[in-house]
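cron nightly-structures :: item 1 of 1
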Amino acid sequence: MFDYFGILISIIIGLALTHALRGLVRLIQMRHVVRLYWVHIVWTLNVLHFSLAIWFGMFWWRNLHEWTSDLFYFLAAYATVIFMWASMLYPAEYAEGFDFKEYFLSNRRWFFGFQMAVCLMDIPETILKSAAHLREMPYQYPLLIAVLLTVSMVGLFSRRPRVHGVLCVAWALTTFGYMVFIPLVSRIAPH
């Protein structure tokens, strides 16, 4: 069952990565004729990193032997929300003179709304993996989710560019720190 499921998840999250990467490449190509916004670029990198981490984390499901349609649809919905989150970063097309700061700030409620949905969906996904004995939930996980949800909530309501600068850096430091710290703890404190 996992092979079947894994193909679907790979396609959906692959589309999310493709959209963000295509947008970033086009942004680089048009850097002289559009108005860049560093916060937007950092969020693109954050979404790419997080999407890859989730995609990698889905591999733990390979050890589940009995699948239900509820779990299948939930995980497919989770991947779909990740795709929609990534899709909020770049419009399908944009012309010379496009202002990414204005685009990001005017689109922020959708972006952070989907980001919050991604975080909220990650909670049951992580708990289900732990309950099925596929992967222990790291004890730092509740702190990670609390920080990511706080960043999402503040981003949802604030229009201040300085706040958004802090938020994108806070997200990056939190997720990269979590990804680095968890393997270190696993090596230092084996079970």
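cron nightly-structures :: done
The longest helix spans residues 100-131.
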